[in-house]
Amino acid sequence: MTAVLRVFADPRQLGDALAREILDAYDRSEASFLLGCPGGRSLRTTYSALAAHDRDLSRLVVVIMDEYVDAPVESHYSCRGFALRELAAPLALRPDQVWLPDADDPSSYDDRIAAAGGIELFLLASGASDGHVAFVPPGSSRDGRTSVLTLAESTRRDNVATFPAFASADEVPTHGVSVGLGTIADARALRLVLHGEDKREATRRLLALDGFDAQWPASIVHDHDNAEIWVDEAALA
Length: 237
Fold this sequence. Notes:
This protein is α/β, with parallel strands linked by helices. It has helices spanning about 10-30, 45-50, 80-90, 105-115, 155-160, 180-185, 200-205, 235; strands at about 5-10, 35, 60-65, 65-70, 100, 120-125, 145-150, 175-180, 190-195, 225-230. The chain has one domain (about 5-235): Rossmann fold. The chain is about 30% helix and about 20% strand. It is globular and about 40 Å long. The chain starts with a strand and ends with a helix.
């Protein structure tokens, strides 16, 4: 199978549409609504659009994909810090509504997700040069679960663009705790977002595939029965 492709004029239009889809799914749910979320640039317009709706999201649980090992929350690259700034504060979420994996007990994250009923919708972004999702590097198992991983050198280079305060890839931490592809694939729906000229090659590589390829982890979307790839015109050019 292959994921459905949806094309938007620009990141703002994409973010507005995806925010509406998230809120529609939230409104159809009755219990806790688990939303898988990446940090970084790709979903920023979606998060901003969610906040602009000024909705009561007291049942929302933000399931952050990953975190650098031993990252101080105040550091510019901390995924927890990103979640607090970009999600918790704008959406008026309680501390218990933001989850992150624990490097000291990675497997407990999958247990916690399962006990809460599973992730309804997993938002994904793709590494520009190697197709990584979260910190999952090329060559990873389709069935992998939350674990502590060594970041691929290509991923560390991509992270310099994601976090411009890094002077070079040498400053990027070498290890992170991350959900696995199996964790992602268990979600009821997947939406992978790519926008901007710097994601053109990643978009081309992904759309050239018609199934999951372990060497391009973002292709997990091609192995799921409710997955879509959302791109803007700049990424598709």
